[in-house]
Amino acid sequence: MKILTAAQTREADAYTIREEGISSTDLMERAAKAFTGWFENKFQPGAEVHIFCGPGNNGGDGLAVARLLHERKYKVQPYLVGDISKASDDFNVNLKRLPQALSPIHVEQESAIPEFNSDACVIDALFGTGLNRAVTGLYGQVIEKLNSSGATITAIDIPSGLYADSQTPDEGAVIRASYTISFELPKLAFLLPQHEPYVGEWHVVPIGLSQQFIAEVKSDLYCTQQEDVQQLLKPRRKFSHKGTYGHALLLCGGYGKIGAAVLAARACLRSGIGLLTVQVPQAGYPILQTAVPEAMTLTDKNRKHLSELPQEMEKYSVIGIGPGIGTERVTKTTIGQLLATASFPIVIDADAINLIASSEKLKGQLYKRKLIFTPHPKEFERLVGKVKNDYDRLQHLREFCLEYGCYVILKGSHTAVGTPEGKVYFNTTGNPGLATGGTGDVLTGIITALVGQQYTLEEACRIGVFVHGLAADLALQTIGEISMTASDVIDSLPSAFLHLTQPLP
Ligand SMILES: NC(=O)C1=CN([C@@H]2O[C@H](COP(=O)(O)OP(=O)(O)OC[C@H]3O[C@@H](n4cnc5c(N)ncnc54)[C@H](O)[C@@H]3O)[C@@H](O)[C@H]2O)[C@@H](O)CC1
Ligand SMILES: [K+]
Fold it and tell me: Ligand 1: residues whose CB is within 6 Å?
């Protein structure tokens, strides 16, 4: 699914209106019906609903929603905020369509807003994608009052005051919605952690915007969805054998962190790799052999740390390196040797990222390699330097991928996969249960397995992060967020792959 800018969304609206020969009021009615459909499933008829409408088409949506919810027996009170003498045409059409029983309150100062009952709903229809400056003055005061009212706020299309695709100025007020119901496609702002307090739980409802326009419009930003991953996954062939599915080498684990190697290895095996060799420091040998009997285990000459590459490197199709390896000097030297010699893809995680980030020499060895980095935001900053905000982080992500011709999986609630072509794919699975030690090691194992099976690096990244999040979502049903461990995510990998390859009816 593509992510469009606010300007492209307006073009999509206009294109749809032209192509379908409908009026903009018709499209607004579709949007209002789609919103109302979601609202009815969430809140019972009879609920008190206060709808705050601004002067543009977002306000027009609010007025149409007021009429539809009134027809469905909600106790609706519309508010017209600010100067509506220059309101949009569709706003005025829907103002006229309000039934007589609904008498709007004109809000010219914030004191016109009454106290709400504690179970009241507020619908925010002040501004949508037409926002073109920071919200201050009366609108800002109204937003602050609604935010502190204690009512449950549901935003139409986007929380008012939030820029859809660029940094919102600090001085602007922004609605803090519990729910945001957006039309047709998600907005970039919803995918960025800094906006969590404003966007709340977000849903996208279809309003029939032109699929042709959306397919043709240029955008480098995408959300990866279940259908995408189902299309990417390849069935296993009848006459295949373990050699068909690659031989992965994991260089993971260190003294006190052999568990990282165990987790990565188990995840790799559960993700379809044909053969797996794990090299661990001597201290890890009995642990690996006992915990992961399916993996072949090599031992490093060093008792505690990665200090050498195995013999016969050419027999491996992919390497996963990093989880639990520590940052010893000898380990850094070994990474240098690996980058100098390996011609196959390398998945680079955790301390391997930290070591590379700390060395300009190692960074200089990254060019023209097939590399996937899997940093969390702190590790990413070690690679690229301090970032100012989430948009700046995205910009750095794209620049880093372009410069080194590599893939970066920037981990987070909506993990972002950056590609060398400048594309970014946001993931749509996962939950806060993943915020626990070891889940990153699991991801390294999954991605390594997929690369080993000859998926392209882009495919491996997109499938891997989706499956990892899906496994956590399936574990959520029986284990919950609080008790979830990295091992639970591995245990749910079979269900996740089954879910994707044999979808339930
Ligand atoms: N264009 C269409 O055909 C459709 C639009 N839809 C709705 O329309 C919205 C976009 O409507 P508009 O483009 O009219 O834009 P908005 O409703 O977001 O607001 C635009 C108006 O607000 C003013 N404004 C912008 N920033 C301001 C600020 N900081 N302080 C004070 N005033 C400010 C502008 O001057 C303009 O008058 C979408 O988000 C969606 O909710 C939907 O009804 C679907 C169809
Ligand atoms: K809004």
Answer: 13, 24, 27-28, 31, 54-59, 61, 88, 127-135, 139, 156-157, 183
Indicate which ligand has the atom closest to the C-alpha of 18: 1
CA of 132 to the centre of ligand 1 (A): 9
- Specify the ligand 1 atom closest to the Cα of 24: 3
pLDDT reported for residue 305:
95
| Residue 117 Cα to ligand 1 middle (Å) | 29
% of the chain residues with pLDDT over 90: 96
Q: Of 200, 158, 151, whose CA–CA distance to 177 is shortest?
A: 200
Distance between CA atoms of residues 426 and 3, nearest Å: 10
Going along the chain from its start, the domains and CATH numbers come out as: 6-219 (3.40.50.10260), 228-233+241-501 (3.40.1190.20)
Closest CA to ligand 1's atom 24: 131
- Residue 369, judged by CB atoms within 10 A of its CB (0-12, 13-18, 19+), counts as middle
CA of 137 to the centre of ligand 2 (A): 17
- What's this model's pTM, rounded to 2 decimal places? 0.95
- For 201-218, write each residue's pLDDT tens digit: 999 999 999 999 999 999
Question: Is-contact 177 124, C-beta < 8 A?
Answer: yes
DSSP characters over 112-161: GSPPPPTT-EEEEES--TT--S---HHHHHHHHHHHTS-PEEEEESS-TT
Q: Is 130 annotated as a binding residue?
A: yes
What is the reported pLDDT for 241?
82
What does residue 124 show for φ and ψ, rounded to 5 degrees?
-95, 105
75-81/121-125 β-pairing? unpaired
94-103, 232-241, 440-449, 459-468: lowest mean pLDDT where? Answer: 232-241
pLDDT, tens digit, 9 for 90 and up, residues 41-74: 999 998 999 999 999 999 999 999 999 999 999 9
> 226 CA distance to ligand 2 centroid (A)?
28
DSSP 8-class letter at 279 = E
In DSSP notation, 99-116 reads -TT--PEEESSGGGSPPP
Ligand 1 binding pocket mutation candidate from 80, 89, 107, 127 (most atoms within 8 A of CB): 127
Residue 255, judged by CB atoms within 10 A of its CB (0-12, 13-18, 19+), counts as middle
Would the pLDDT of 120 be above 80? yes
- Measured distance CA(252)–CA(258) in Å, rounded: 8
